[in-house]
Specification:
By secondary structure, this protein is an all-alpha fold. The protein has a single domain, classed as Up-down Bundle (Chorismate Mutase Domain, subunit A), CATH 1.20.59. About 80% of the residues lie in helices and about 0% in strands. The chain has three helices and no strands. Helix 2 packs antiparallel against helix 3.
Length: about 100
């Protein structure tokens, strides 16, 4: 890699690092919202809502196409996020 391209790469990586920090802030906020949702669930069986998951994934797919983002990327990200939060909810579920 040329020195010029190395410098460009470093600048892009700095932007990516800043973006990652913003994403972490959003994930923290999302986690707070999930905690609120979890408080409302009375039974552990309410944690996985397949209709909701399908709705979300379809919505993300449509928006991805509109924004010209590869839907395979966003689908994978959202599926991982959804199932990570389902796991979180299962681990933190407390019967009332």
């Amino acid at each position: 890699m040329s020195p010029k391209n190395k410098k460009k790469l470093n600048l892009i990586r700095i932007k990516l690092d800043k973006l990652d920090n913003k994403l972490l802030t959003l994930i923290k906020y999302r986690t707070l919202l999930v905690k609120e949702v979890l408080k409302l669930k009375e039974f552990k069986s309410e944690i996985v809502d397949k209709k909701r998951i399908t709705f979300i994934l379809n919505k993300v797919k449509k928006k991805s196409k509109i924004l010209n983002i590869d839907p395979r990327i966003t689908n994978r990200i959202w599926k991982n996020m959804i199932w990570s939060y389902i796991d979180y909810e299962k681990r933190n579920f407390k019967k009332k």
